[in-house]
Amino acid sequence: MISDISRGQLTFDALKKRYRKATGNVLDFDNNLISFRLIQEDGQMTNAGVLLADQWNIHHSRVFCTRWNGLDKAGSVQDALDDDEFTGSVLTLFDNTMAFIKKNSQRGWRKDKDQRIELPDYPERALEEGIVNALIHRSYLQTGAHSQVDIYDDRLVITNPGGDV
């Protein structure tokens, strides 16, 4: 979908850094924006491009995260141990959500000869995949729609309203 925001209103420093870190290459930005379908040839941004910009321009771009006390959302004296709401670009949402999960997950370890082996509750790659899927497969134009991460004592649940971006 085409947004009402022009290329000149946005910067993409975080995207450039992320791209270079992931690929080792410098992003040929103006050409890649068109080939990635983040901008139209006339300079008008797509909603996907706006979601990757440094500026927060889509007001429904947010994630709610909660670390619950126990196995469900209620039933104890203190229902939630931690919660946060994140807003911003999808890169910001991803980074903040990953940090929240890591902060609120158990991390065991075992000793193996000369080193310590970390044993996190959830494989990092699986968390990344779940968060990315929630962020890219949801509607950012639907009022009140948001992705949510709920961490319980025995599981982690990532939900979103779905829809087309």
Describe the structure.
It is a single chain. The protein contains five helices and eight strands. α4 (90-103) packs antiparallel against α5 (124-136). It folds into two domains: 2-52, no CATH class; 62-159, no CATH class. The protein has 165 residues and is an alpha+beta fold. The strands form three sheets. A four-stranded mixed sheet has the order 4-3-7-8, with helices on one face. Strands 1-2 form a two-stranded antiparallel sheet. It is flat and about 55 Å long.
Percent in strands? 25-35%
Low-confidence stretches: none
Structural shape: flat
Mean pLDDT: 85
Helix-and-strand structural type: alpha+beta
Largest sheet: 4 strands, mixed
- Terminal Cα separation, in Å? 8 Å
Radius of gyration over C-alpha positions, nearest whole angstrom: 19 Å
> Based on the structure, what is the oligomeric state of the protein chains?
single chain
Q: How many discrete domains? A: 2
Count of discrete alpha- or pi-helical segments spanning 4 or more residues:
5
Helical coverage, percent range: 25-40%
- Strands of the biggest beta sheet: in what spatial order? 4-3-7-8
User: What are the secondary-structure elements, in order, as H or E?
Assistant: EHHEHEEHEEHEE
Give the strand tally.
Answer: 8
